[in-house]
């Protein structure tokens, strides 16, 4: 029993040192936003200019001591005082900032992703020359901004996308060398959120005509596009252009306009119709078909080996189809979990 307590204390010290080193290099890991930059999260070290300044001040101190020069002592202590004050102001330029991330709009693979980062600075002085970037990214795209006092700003650093799917947001680094440039203060922040990358659309834009069905005026049941045929209750996936906004303003509920005519067309985008292509090529071709069918105002559905999305139209329906393609082959499980969480 006499040796148990010292061993436990030694183990706790090693664990604390290991965690401190991890926070120094990588931050705290994914956290729910907003992330508040308290004292233990902000680190500071001298820059090359700061090291040169410290060496110069030390040489001046040695020279002043050697020659007993009062003016040399005064200048050395003045420069040393400026350096100490610079440490304080550089450190406080990041201290107590709050970092959060807003909704991230999905993009297609190969495009640059805009990450809306929100910096809050309430009840504190302005922050100047705050640099934000993603250190794990191969091409660091640094955004430099000022954060006014008692205010918040939203900046959008860019990330290049390489693979489709849902990805966790990488660790961000906030950095500043304000005001003297002799010291660098930094802090890590990783908000626990994800972003979605759609497959890259194929260059082939010819829709599969064999699965395109036409309806005449008598049999389309209001699914055409020529003549107004009445109103019905709004269904998820309906085009916003067909919503009866005047009825909504009169508090009559959300209704959708129905049209009849000989131009009603329904299209099924089928995985099995592309047997000659590999998985990624099929996803790329289906992505192109979804975009073209939406632009042509078709009512279209998507058939995948593990999921079928019924006929629909509109931005929400397009996003649902593109999300299923982005998450393939785990799209069905992901959609089920999203439905249960919602």
Describe this structure in words.
The structure is a single chain. This protein is of the alpha+beta class. The protein folds into 2 domains: 28-197, Immunoglobulin-like, CATH 2.60.40; 209-221 and 264-341, no CATH class. It is built from 7 helices and 20 strands. It has a 5-stranded antiparallel β-sheet with strand order 2-13-12-7-8. It has a 4-stranded antiparallel β-sheet with strand order 1-3-6-9, with no helix packed on it. It has a 4-stranded mixed β-sheet with strand order 15-18-19-20, covered by helices on one side. Helix 5 (279-295) links the parallel strand 18 and strand 19. Helix 2 packs antiparallel against helix 3, helix 5 packs antiparallel against helix 6 and helix 6 crosses helix 7. It is elongated and about 95 Å long. The protein starts with a helix and ends with a helix. 23% of the residues are buried.
Topology diagram in text:
Blueprint: H1 4-26, E1 35-36, E2 43-46, H2 48-67, H3 70-92, E3 98-101, E4 107-108, E5 112-114, E6 117-121, E7 127-133, E8 143-147, E9 151-155, E10 158-160, E11 165-168, E12 172-176, E13 183-189, E14 194-198, E15 212-215, E16 227-233, H4 245-249, E17 255-260, E18 264-270, H5 279-295, E19 299-304, E20 307-312, H6 315-327, H7 331-341
Parallel strand pairs: 4-14, 18-19
Antiparallel strand pairs: 1-3, 2-13, 3-6, 5-10, 6-9, 7-8, 7-12, 11-14, 12-13, 15-18, 16-17, 19-20
Helix pairs in contact: 2-3, 5-6, 6-7
């Amino acid at each position: 029993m006499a040796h148990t307590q010292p061993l436990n204390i030694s183990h706790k010290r090693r664990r604390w040192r290991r965690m401190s080193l991890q926070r120094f290099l990588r931050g705290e890991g994914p956290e729910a936003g907003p992330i508040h930059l308290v004292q233990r999260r902000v680190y500071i070290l001298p820059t090359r200019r700061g090291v040169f300044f410290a060496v110069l001040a030390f040489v001046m101190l040695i020279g002043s001591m050697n020659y007993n020069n009062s003016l040399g002592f005064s200048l050395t202590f003045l420069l040393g005082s400026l350096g100490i004050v610079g440490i304080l102001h550089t450190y406080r330029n990041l201290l107590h900032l709050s970092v959060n991330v807003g909704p991230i709009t999905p993009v297609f693979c190969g495009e640059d992703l805009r990450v809306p980062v929100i910096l809050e600075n309430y009840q504190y002085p302005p922050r100047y020359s705050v640099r934000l970037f993603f250190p794990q990214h191969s091409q660091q795209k640094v955004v430099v901004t000022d954060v006014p006092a008692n205010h918040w700003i939203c900046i959008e650093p860019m990330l290049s996308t390489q693979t489709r799917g849902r990805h966790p947001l990488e660790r961000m680094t906030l950095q500043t060398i304000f005001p003297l440039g002799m010291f660098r203060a930094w802090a890590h922040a990783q908000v626990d959120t994800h972003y979605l990358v759609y497959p890259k659309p194929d260059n082939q834009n010819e829709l599969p005509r064999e699965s395109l069905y036409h309806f005449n005026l008598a049999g389309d049941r209001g699914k055409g596009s020529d003549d107004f045929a009445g109103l019905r209750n709004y269904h998820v996936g309906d085009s916003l252009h067909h919503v009866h906004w005047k009825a909504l303003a009169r508090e009559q509920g959300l209704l959708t306009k129905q049209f009849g005519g000989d131009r009603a067309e329904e299209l099924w985008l089928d995985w099995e119709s592309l047997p000659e292509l590999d998985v990624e090529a099929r996803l790329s071709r289906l992505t192109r078909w979804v975009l073209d069918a939406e632009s042509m105002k078709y009512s279209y559905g998507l058939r995948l080996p593990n999921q079928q999305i019924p006929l629909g139209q509109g931005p929400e329906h397009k996003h649902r189809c593109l999300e299923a393609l982005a998450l393939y082959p785990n799209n069905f499980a992901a959609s089920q979990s999203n439905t249960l969480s919602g």
